[in-house]
Batch of 3 targets.
Target 1
Amino acid sequence: MKKYKESFKTILDRLHLSIKKNNLKNSKQREFVLKAIYDDGGHLSPEDIFAITRKTCKNSSVSSIYRILSFLEKEGFVSSIEVDKTGKRYEIASGLHHDHIICLECGRIEEFYNDEIEKLQIDVVGSYNAKLVGHDMLLYVVCEDCLKQ
């Protein structure tokens, strides 16, 4: 699912506004991190992002990637999911709701959306006389390929 509501240019324009709002210096490294995640369209670890950005930004470090990801998540440019003990995986915060299926063997992450599941969640919340403000569904599986091995 690599469909975004915004073009990369629009996201970059918002990033520049956010940097200005937070009185930060403009940093190409933030742009490289955002571009790596945008172009991949998947769920990258900070180490994956470091490996990608290191090719174009030689003075990159893993610690700077973590700081940048923290900023980008706080500002709503990326979202993260915690898939296992290895840490977070990052994706563009597209605004398009979806859930995740994660293989415990190979680590592959698939995105899905199901109207019936969404409706059931609203019904459950309604039965508690509450208002749903957000949710994350992570389904842990052993994928078809791993089952064959």
Note: The domain at 99-148 is CATH 3.30.1490.190 (Dna Ligase; domain 1).
Target 2
Amino acid sequence: MITAELLEDLKAILPEERIAVDNEQGHPLGNSGKVTVYPNSEEEIANILRYANDNGKKISVVGGGTKRGFGGIIEYADIGLSLANYKGFVEHVVGDMTLTVKAGTPVKELQEYLAPFNQKIAMDVNWPEYATIGGVIAANDSGPKRLGYGSARDAVIGLRTVYPDGTVIRSGGKVVKNVAGYDMNKLFIGSMGTLGVVSEVTLKLRPRTKYESLVLLSFPEGDLQGIRSFAVKLLDSMMEPVALELLNPSLAEKLTGQHRYTLAISFEDIESSVHYQEEFIKKIQPAQTELKILSIKDALVFWDQFYQMAPNGAADTAGPQTEAALKIGVVNLDVINVIRECQLLQDTHHVSALAHGGLGHGLCQVILEGSSDDILSAINLLRSSAEQLGGYAVVKHLPFSLRQKVNVWGEKPAHYFLLEGIKKKIDPNRILNPGRFVGGI
């Protein structure tokens, strides 16, 4: 229940029209607020956090909502802090190729703003029209082009972060060459908003791609050794793909129409360099494989479709089947084993599994759809398989009711005591995103 006292207290911080009470039965993904507030400034964010910290109120932070099903063991916090209104550009230094932006700005808006300057942020994320830069940073998100782009962490130069007590701190700087002291940015990037609310992000930019293409190399069913041998040759060469992603047959069929294990190899450079690398692929192409090259326009269409495949926490999630998404990390070539396992479990667990993984960086993304029991069983199997390979599995999307039955982050890591110690120091009252991170932090 929302108390009249809480509402009156919040009205003293924000105008009434930017306070919304949740009168519905509850969102299936949880991570809601009994009352949601929409600050327009960093000062308002700080005032809300200070009030919550002083009065023992729990806060759930949300940007665009795409990651609403990622972590969290509390259905309702006292206050939902939405950064939907806190967006826009603070500073763009074109010559230095840096951009400072408010945390609630969607990634697609950033890229569209930068396009006329022939600049971009080196990020590829799911649902870029919804995903905010603050949410991407909080989850340290990345896609298939992580091989060439790196993760979200690699694009960040500096942050402004609001601590739970309302203190605003700055970490990093506003120039690319920033080497002073410990890199505090790393403390907040990937911490799922459990240490502070990122209010501003300073990013290093790259020149916009002059030309790109996508090579689709499909293999006969089951020729996993051929995939491994080809990947080793390519990775040992001087070629520089920005993505070397293995698609399982189910995902490949949705994207290409062919039910085969398929490698999606992306090149970005000047046109002559891209064509040179395409020719190299043709020279080392294994027998019995089929090769198709998508030029720049068709490649962009492919990736746009690709980034709409994952579950979207900001969309209506009420459907007849349960959706789940996992991130699995293994040694890069062990990705082949994970993708094969995902394909096989469709028969053994009666689920749909769309899976892809980077043979250069070792991260796999798996989208599952099926009954709740089958989904939970499939998650346990994939986690066990990953751990046997010396890797890990994190559940990135799952309805709230099922997150009570599975450990989203897996077992606590050996360094958990350090994470717990940092949390106690920065957020001793545990008001920020409770239960959203490793070990229930």
Note: The radius of gyration is 22 Å.
Target 3
Amino acid sequence: MSAERATPRPIVGVLCCNEAVVRPVQTVATRFVAPLSRFSDATVVLVPAVIEAVDISAMAIMLDGLLLTGSRSNVAPARYGGAPLPAGQCTDPERDEVALALAGKMIEAGKPVFGICRGLQEINVLFGGTLSTDACHGRHHRGSWDGCFDELFGHCHDVELNDAGLLARATGRRRMSVNSVHEQGIDRLGGGLSIEAIAAEDGLIEAIWARPCGADVLAVQWHPEWNVDRSAESRAFFSLVGSSLRASVAA
């Protein structure tokens, strides 16, 4: 075994969701988990979105980083003072509670937190920002969760990257095409967050970054885990996750 392999991998928590399949179950798509092992070189621990099952303080000590995943559900408007969601859009209150509490504790401890889709929205709310369904105007979601996932995740648009941002440096790109599978978006940006990318068509904020307590907080509105085998830019996101985890462990 090489010296590099003998070094323990950093441990990243991946937040689950509550879904009902006859009875309530904890779910997380494997596509969120596999790239963390393959491209971030991390060990994954699944974090249940069950308030009574998670000791937030203990979990924040155990984990080296946290990924807030995408989900079928949306952040509850009560979390940011928003209007009720349109009919057909669901919430997951326990996911909101665990995600915001654990992410906040991790950030305070100087540990990295990452977000994908819903995860970006949770981070924006955590930093005092707001969300809106109007911000998307039907342009950022096509297809159905009950239909063909290739069609759902195949709906793409261009984003423009901040020249000085982390994603631009990692990808070597200033503009790229990303998939778009969300019905909520950032309305007011949270305090202390920097814009990493915006939608080329309508200016919607598509990626955010901060380093409030010495570790990266990085999130994207798109789904890099979906096409990670075919996209160098998606692999670059997970490489950034790995770099941030290792930097945090070494600090």
Note: The mean pLDDT is 91.
